[in-house]
Automatic annotation (TrEMBL):
Its EC number is 3.5.4.4. Catalyzes the hydrolytic deamination of adenosine and 2-deoxyadenosine. This is Adenosine deaminase. It catalyses: adenosine + H2O + H(+) = inosine + NH4(+); 2'-deoxyadenosine + H2O + H(+) = 2'-deoxyinosine + NH4(+). Keywords: Hydrolase, Metal-binding, Nucleotide metabolism, Zinc. Binds 1 zinc ion per subunit. Belongs to the metallo-dependent hydrolases superfamily. Adenosine and AMP deaminases family. Adenosine deaminase subfamily. Pfam families: A_deaminase. It comes from Neobacillus kokaensis. The keyword Zinc applies. Residues 7-328 form the Adenosine deaminase domain. Zn(2+) binds at residues 12, 14, 197, 278. It comes from the Bacteria. The record marks 221 as: Important for catalytic activity.
Length: 334
């Protein structure tokens, strides 16, 4: 299969993990921000996690530099536009981009200004390229439930105007779902869809609780349901969709090698899986690369790809009209 030419859909991509190194340098120079280097190749090294990364925590350290240049309305708009532009150029037809608004208030921006700037960048890309998108607001698990309430409340006015869902992300500890039951409950009441990072670092029970306590419709990663029969069964029975990110999972040591990744076993056993980048820059990847890895490691057939693509369409938080349009891209391929 030539994945360069096939239509693709991405449901799990972090804005702050997907910056162009040249853009980081340009913004830093314009805004007087200090960087460890102003050479693109050096910045690339600073913000890219090695494949032999020690852990998720080490992987997350790579977001420090990007966050420095994501503190103005113009930089947020530009970075979002460029991410959608890069995706469109590899035939990604629809993408949901997630980010944590509270990480971008260091220089006085309000949550309203932050979210609107990201939506503006997405809309500009949609007007220029054959791609559609939506935004997912992430709440940091390292922050309090009160801060999550703040994101849910402030983001509410953007529902249906570019924002579609709420997420919990950052370092994963066992039992984190209990802390965020109330803010996620309120989010669901307001009309947010729910996707939760869980089961990325050896705690399959977190996936079970994300579904039972938070009403998660999709799970970011979910690798470790393989070690928790209850989580595995609820994901399978309730058709909770897994947003899987092979390269990232090898880097964070969720799996040791690509061949050990459970994505294909899950797929063949009736669990709904999707293929995603997680972070294009931090993981030095693209959707084409991720699809190629899965195809090479597990002899993915065109029929398999069709199924995963259509799963991605149905699992997306897009409106019905957009979903029908996305199905059309794959209908004539075979």
């Amino acid at each position: 299969m030539n994945f360069a030419e096939l239509p693709k859909i991405e449901l799990h991509c972090h804005l702050d993990g997907s910056l162009r190194p040249e853009t980081i340098i340009d913004i830093a120079q314009k805004e007087g921000i200090s960087l460890p280097s102003f050479i693109a190749g050096e910045i690339q090294k600073e913000i890219t996690a090695p494949i032999n990364c020690e852990s998720l925590d080490e992987y997350l350290e790579k977001f420090a530099i990007p966050n420095l240049v994501m503190q103005s309305k113009e930089s947020l708009r530009r970075i979002t536009f460029e991410l959608f532009e890069d995706a469109a150029q590899e035939k990604v037809k629809y993408m949901e981009v997630r980010f944590a608004p509270l990480l971008h208030t260091n220089k006085g921006l309000t949550i309203d200004e932050i979210v609107q700037s990201v939506i503006d960048g997405m809309r500009e890309a949609e007007s220029r390229y054959d791609i559609k998108g939506n935004i997912i607001l992430s709440c940091m698990r390292t922050m309090s439930a009160e801060r999550a309430f703040e994101v849910v409340e402030q983001g509410r006015k953007f529902l249906g105007k570019g924002v579609v869902a709420i997420d919990l992300c950052a370092a994963e500890e066992e039992g984190f779902c209990h802390t965020f039951v109330e803010p996620i409950k309120l989010a669901r009441k307001y009309g947010y869809r729910v996707t939760i990072h869980a089961g990325e670092t050896g705690i399959g029970k977190n996936v079970l609780e994300a579904v039972q306590l938070l009403g998660a419709e999709r799970i970011g990663h979910g690798v470790f349901i393989k070690d928790c029969p209850e989580a595995y069964q609820i994901v399978k029975d309730q058709q909770v969709v897994l947003e899987m990110c092979p390269t990232s999972n090898v880097q964070t040591k969720a799996v040791s090698t690509f061949h050990e990744h459970p994505i294909y076993h899950f797929h063949k056993d009736g669990i709904k899986v999707t293929i995603n980048t997680d972070n294009r820059t931090v993981s030095d990847t693209t959707m084409e690369k991720e699809c190629t890895i899965v195809a090479n490691e597990f002899h993915l057939s065109l029929e398999d790809y069709h199924q995963i693509y259509l799963t991605s369409v149905e699992a997306s938080f897009a409106d019905p009209q957009t979903k029908e349009r996305l199905k059309g891209y794959i209908a004539g391929i075979g």
